[in-house]
Amino acid sequence: MIDIRPTSAQDHQLFVETMHAAFALFVDPVGEDGTGAWWSAFEPERGLLARDADGRAIGTAGAYTLELTLPGGRIVPVSGVTAVGVLPSHRRRGVLTAMMRRQLADLRARGEAVAVLLASEALIYRRFGYGPATYTRALTVPRHKAALTPPRSGAAEPAGTVELLHRDQAVDLLEQVYDRHRRTRPGAVSRPHRWWARGAGQPPIAPKPRYVALHRDADGTPDGYASYAIEDKRSLVVDETVAATDAAYTALARYLLGHDLVQQVVFRHVPPDHPLPWQLADYNAAEQGKHTDWLWARVLDVPAALTARGWSTDGELVLDVDDPFLGEHHRHLLTVRGGEASCVPTDRAPDLSLDISDLGSILLGGTLPSTLVRAGHLHAHHPDAPARADALFRSDREPHCLHWF
Questions:
Q1: List 15, 42, 64, 405, catalytic entry
Q2: Which residues define the annotated binding site?
Q3: pTM for this predicted structure
Q4: pLDDT at 150
Q5: Where does acetyl-CoA bind (predicted)?
Q6: Residues comprising the binding site for acetyl-CoA?
Q7: Which of these is catalytic: 15, 125, 225, 267?
Q8: How far apart are CA 64 and CA 82, in angstroms?
Q9: Active-site annotation holds for 42
């Protein structure tokens, strides 16, 4: 028998220890308040604890209270699912399935249309209705190939400055710049103040030694930063580059690529549409790392999710959506006019049939419906349905999520 109950602040230590044991990790020694630990921003009241018949803790599932930016700059509340694990001694007994079913019911009760997570293993979460929605990769540029193309003849150099700071000097500014950035990028999620204050997560949130290149515009307003450190005495590794404008990004790239006494610059986490290869004098100088999934999305309320995002093209689609994990099947008429959508039940013949996980993949515009039709995930009932769906769901910017949770 499996008992699943919500946690409270009194369960915090047990939750942390059980979650670490599920991943064969050890709890890092930290101060009494946990500040500086990657898990120190856990929200105890949002956790679930699974217990066996003897009352022993055997599994955990948690969630952060976040915001997600959708295409069109729309922002919606989401739950960032995290700390999902089952002790090795109790796997393949239905514990994970029971926790995920309970958690989805709780998230729906909160009135949220979408949940998100970072998948430790791609095979696990699709069966619970999650689909990969944003992608990321690394770019490595050897210093001897790091020359940037000069500005077009007659073009003025953008005004602005780059200031070198230590991470501890810049936390408040990093928080401000990131928040400005995430509101403009589809797929980006918020970093609540609690994360920065507690040093929870990965650099530059975590209080690890880092240099910060801070860009200010012509008026002196911070509008971009790059967090970096030298690793192995030869690689300048950039945790993330955040910029509100193309000018700020270019200035930061020039600063990083011009750093002395390194053999290469590694941009660890960049979107698929990153402009750097086009800015280099040698297009092939940027060695592209593994293209991988990052943020996964789970649609909890189809009409609410589709009407929440912005749209750049008018049109209609009838979507036949199957949600096998929750035992649901609905057909919706999606109508877009002037950037706004309505989504209502319909008996009309479908244009596309799809699984709820695939709807999560196309929601942010990072995966084209036609790609999933060709892959056999979506079934098109009319020859023109994939092209019409592509035109509707395409985002004005490639979705990208920097945040690790």
A1: 405
A2: 84-86, 92-97, 120-121
A3: 0.95
A4: 83
A5: 84-86, 92-97, 120-121
A6: 84-86, 92-97, 120-121
A7: 125
A8: 7
A9: no
